Description:
By secondary structure, the chain is mostly helical. 56% of the residues lie in helices and 8% in strands. A hairpin with a 3-residue loop joins strand 2 (63-65) and strand 3 (69-72).
Amino acid sequence: MLKPLEEKLGRLNLRAAIIDLFKWMRTRHRFKNNRPLVLETEYPRTAFLRQLVSEVEPLAAVLDVNEKQIQFSEHVSEKERLEILAYVDAEFRPRLHVYHRPPGRTRE
């Protein structure tokens, strides 16, 4: 599901976009706020976030994305939102990646 997007964005950019999106969801759940994820247009990562939400069907089904923000779709009920946010809060634990690279080899 994510392989085509990984080929477009690169593995590290895709990972960063996923972490940013899920951090927003986790923060939203923990602090009980309804703020959208504001996209700052001057940062390249916002384009990656936009692509992630619009091109990955499960995310596109529950989130709306436009030029300035990402938020839950109006058709997603409050109960569904809370379930999604609680799941992300409980399960989202990004791992610190430490790569061993032999001398002379480059990343991707």
